[in-house]
Amino acid sequence: MKTFTTVDTTPYGAKYNKETKCVEFKLYSKHAHHIKLCIFDEPIGKEPVLVLDMTKCDNNIWSTSVKDYVLNCQKKPVFYGYRVFGANWEYKEDYEAGSEIGFISKFDEEGNRFCPNKIAYDPYAKELSHTPSEVNPGNTMFRSGGNLYLTDNAKWAVKSVFSPKCNKEIASIDPRPFNCEIIGEVHIKDLTQNLNMVEKGTYKGAAKFAKSIKELGITMIEFLPLNEFDSRQNGVNHWGYMPLGYFSLARKYAFDKTQGNLLDEFRLMTDEFHKNGIKVCLDMVYNHTGEGGLINHNADDANLLSYALIDNAEYYKVYKNGYYRSNSGCGNDFSANSEAVLNLIIDSLIFWINQGVDAFRFDLAAALLENSCDCEEIYDSIDSAAAKLKEKLKEKGIDVADDFEQAQEGVILIAEPWTCGGKECYQLGNFPDFWAEWNDIARDTIRKITLRPNELTPNMLRDVFEGTPSRFKGINKSINYIASHDGFTLFDLNTFKQKSASTQGGSNWEISGDYNNNPYLRENAIRKQLMFLFLSRGIPMIQIGDIIMHSKNGNNNSYNKDDITNYLNWDRAANKEGFENRITEFTRNLIKFRKSIDIIKTKDFKKSLTYHYDNGQVAEFNNSGYWNNPCDLFFGIMINSNNRIYIASNKGDSELNIFLPENKPKSSWHVINDSSIFKFIDFEEKDWIEKNYILNPHAMAIFTESEYE
Questions:
Q1: Measured in whole angstroms, how far is the alpha carbon of residue 388 from the centre of its chain?
Q2: Which of 47, 170, 332, 601 is most buried (most C-beta within 10 Å)?
Q3: Other beta carbons less than 10 A from residue 630's beta carbon
Q4: CA-CA distance, 110 to 520, in Å (whole number)?
């Protein structure tokens, strides 16, 4: 198997220079007036042992260096942070930590929030020493409200951790078309936490489980955020969508939590997934940071951890009155088109690519379509961070895959094409062509096939089956899914009409239902939804927990549940007598069947399709009375290739006696699966069908044509 060597080409942060035998520190700040580097022997409880003034160089870069005989970084990690001065807190030579010498205001109209009494960790740190709540659950020493801005938090502040890393060899995967992938979304701890292994819930545990993921048919694993975050922020934060650093890993997921070792364990995990042919996709949150924002909407009282201390006006979208814009719904919006943030995004992507990462999913990615650096929403697919990424990465020697039906070298970029608020925040279909996009039209349509069938017309089904060309202009860039971490699991959306009372947040608008608690109707519905998902054009994504029918008991916003609500129960899926095992095997075989359909992966897929009435005849495209009729009960799809495949769907409450399309000479139809016949868990030829077939209520059946002697 081919391998490649990990490298670190990051321009900022801390780096060891072998020639000078120095550790070099570089920090970007456009608006800072003075910066002090603080070096610590220990991450917690100690004052800095060394404080150095930094020099401002070209392009707003501040730098200094320290001889390694002082730091001894080859034998122990270096802990460091910054005190930063600016327009609202000017530097004075007689400044003392914990004083108000040089203080002018907590913030100013230009958006500055400099506060040198607070130590800032490095946005480019490859590791963070701890999280704020570990030393200060109330977070008071990191705030500016009242007299808190005078509190020197050097002993307890989050420190940047530097430890020189040797490059590692990681297995690589030969290029293959993106539309050949089967994406499995999962939280890294939930994946193995219920397993009987000492490494459960960790990067190392995930690596040991790679072979089992492969056996399910998953070819790309998409992890919920792995960047460092505070798991006790605002109570319990389990999902990790509040990143503190974009180069640093969450220590809580490491088996070996020793300072300086996190990256090695991640590299070993990536290597193991690659050896099993599985690509790795990271969920990145560039629309906001875990620094938070204001406390109780008080402009005087802000969380100050890193970005706000280093250059608040450059990193965030801020108003003159000190408030942060929060279209993300998380307290602040990253200013994605500013120089600082755009460089950070590009540099962090390159860093993870150089550690073996193959793809990225961008949380609330519509924020990256904005091309303004102020608080006005102006979306632009030509001059915005989202539009510039391909070109900017290319300048750094990184290719971006842009034809998802060809085997290409290059990273995959996936957008969640909306944000939580703001004008025109729904941007599905508006990303540049080299972006794949989560497709909520596909999500809702596939759910409605069984839950609200009378809302669907044949034309709506056809659009999703063909990859939603109505939105994507015919380009194959749709990420099709039924359920994701946001919302109900696949089992729960077919079991509950509303979210459970224990859910914090979430909503009751989700398309879900309980089929009058009829287990037969539920299982048929789940199988039917899965069939449509995996036979449609686009790139299918499924929660790994949905393959084994994981239930959260109706909780559709389990971001704060670090417990069995989220932990996957593999034992239940292994019980061969159970419903969960039946769906697991059905899904695994369905994925295998999709992989066998060559034409579904080509540009000719749409051309290969014909649609049929229940009498087997082709449905004419000019028959608007059929295509726009939500009351028509039958929908038939023919995939015309060397081995024809026919898909027949009944959305009515009664049986349908359907006629299959006329066979080719010396050929016959065979049913290979029927969603309503639960003993069918594979997709091999079964009964020979002469002309007609009784399609059960709400069922979907798949037929293949084969020649006979």
A1: 20
A2: 332
A3: 14
A4: 62
Q: Which two tokens stand for residue 57?
A: 């160089």
Say how far apart CA 42 and CA 352 lie, in whole Å.
28
The neighbouring-strand residues paired with 120 are 82
* Residue (of 334, 270, 280) closest to 307 by Cα position: 334
CA distance 684 to 704: 9
Q: Where are the beta strands (DSSP E) in 544-699?
A: 609-612, 634-639, 645-650, 656-659, 667-674, 688-689, 692-695
Q: Are 200 and 192 a contacting pair, CB within 8 Å? A: yes
Residue 232, C-beta contacts closer than 8 angstroms, at least 6 positions apart: 131, 133, 134, 137
- Cα(654)–Cα(695) distance, integer angstroms: 9
Residue spans of the domains in the chain: they are: 602-707
**DSSP per-residue codes, 458-487:** HHHHHHHHTT-HHHHTT-S-EEE-S--SSS
Are 623 and 629 contacting, i.e. CB atoms less than 8 angstroms apart?
Answer: no
Does the pLDDT value for residue 14 go beyond 90? Answer: yes
CA atoms within 13 A on the CB side of 449: 34
Please list the helix, strand and coil fractions of the chain in percent, rounded to the nearest 5, in that order. Answer: 25, 20, 50
Look at residue 517 and tell me whether its pLDDT is greater than 90. yes
Q: Domain 602-707 class?
A: mainly beta
List the beta bridge partners of residue 705: 669
- What pLDDT does 692 receive? 93
Handedness of CA 449, 428, 595, 584 (dihedral sign): negative
By the 10 Å C-beta count (0-12 exposed, 13-18 middle, 19+ buried), 109 is classed as middle
355-372: per-residue pLDDT in tens?
A: 999 999 999 999 999 987
54, β-bridge pairs: none
Which residue has tokens 């899926």? Answer: 573
Phi, psi of 362 (to 5 degrees): -105, 115
Residue type, 642: N
Q: What is the pLDDT of residues 250-300, one digit of tens each?
A: 999 999 999 988 999 999 999 999 999 999 999 999 999 999 889 999 999
* Spatial distance between the Cα atoms of 570 and 369, rounded to a whole number of angstroms: 40
Q: How confident is the model at residue 487 (pLDDT cuts 50, 70, 90)?
A: very high
Q: Which pLDDT band, with edges at 50, 70 and 90, does 233 fall under?
A: confident
The model's pTM: 0.97
The pLDDT of residue 709 is 66
354: left (phi over 0), alpha (psi -120 to 50) or beta: alpha
C-beta of residue 380 within 8 angstroms of C-beta of residue 387 = yes
Nearest alpha carbon to residue 419 among 363, 376, 372: 363
Mean pLDDT of the chain: 96
Parallel, antiparallel, or unpaired: how do β-strands 539-543 and 478-480 relate?
parallel
> How big is the chain, counted in residues?
709
Q: In whole angstroms, what is the distance from residue 322 CA to residue 489 CA?
A: 40
- Cα 45 to chain centroid distance, Å, stands at 36
Q: Are 482 and 536 in contact (CB under 8 A)?
A: no
Strand bridging mode 359-362 / 78-85: unpaired
Q: Is the pLDDT of residue 565 over 80?
A: yes
Residue 87's identity, in one-letter code, is: A
H or E element in which residue 392 lies = helix 385-395
C-alpha span between 32 and 458 (Å, rounded): 60
Strand ranges inside 357-458, DSSP E: 359-362, 412-415, 435-438
- Please tell me the number of Cα atoms within 13 Å of 322 on its side-chain side: 18
Report the pLDDT value the prediction gives residue 180, as an integer from 0 to 100.
Answer: 96
Alpha-carbon span 119 to 72, nearest angstrom: 22
